[in-house]
């Protein structure tokens, strides 16, 4: 059984832990470098990326996070977590840093303000069983551009935002602009837990 950490500096940690357990993983909170060393994979939850960045700095976690990601630890970031895994961000605050790892440019708060949060069905062909995924967007970012090694897993399919990229994968790193921990449909967590299992086998 893979042990998957949830970065517990800020954001909706509990919901991800519950989703990971439903996906057959052991879920543990990660707040310190020693805790980070013990996990097979990591979820970076939604919340507020500027706060998460400052806390990661304050808790001496930013460099350990970068090192583990560079060394091949699987990681999944949702919303603010997607921002944290982006190599480049737009509309960040002055000096805002990320962990990075995915060769993409992500725009913060791209869909508008809190009142503009919304839900829509997104098709993610990698999920099992297949079928539309109810995606909840809360002051969400979107992916403006990706490098050649990034696989696009899902886009917005209706309305004026049609075509916007909202789910990606590069190697062992996965990111979604939406919150899959809130709806009781844990296929995204199962997909990530499976990726962690495969990474453990590969070593
Ligand atoms: N707007 C937030 C940020 O910039 C993300 C919102 C979320 O994670 N739900 O980090």
TrEMBL record:
Substrates-to-products reaction catalysed: L-glutamine + H2O = L-glutamate + NH4(+); aldehydo-D-ribose 5-phosphate + D-glyceraldehyde 3-phosphate + L-glutamine = pyridoxal 5'-phosphate + L-glutamate + phosphate + 3 H2O + H(+)
Q: Name one GO biological process term.
A: pyridoxal phosphate biosynthetic process
The record's listing under PROSITE patterns reads: GATASE_TYPE_1, PDXT_SNO_1, PDXT_SNO_2
Q: Does the keyword Transferase apply?
A: yes
| PANTHER family from the UniProt entry | PYRIDOXAL 5'-PHOSPHATE SYNTHASE SUBUNIT SNO (PTHR31559), PYRIDOXAL 5'-PHOSPHATE SYNTHASE SUBUNIT SNO1-RELATED (PTHR31559:SF0)
Sorted alphabetically, which HAMAP family does this protein's record hold?
PdxT
Stated role: Catalyzes the hydrolysis of glutamine to glutamate and ammonia as part of the biosynthesis of pyridoxal 5'-phosphate. The resulting ammonia molecule is channeled to the active site of PdxS.
Q: What is this protein called?
A: Pyridoxal 5'-phosphate synthase subunit PdxT
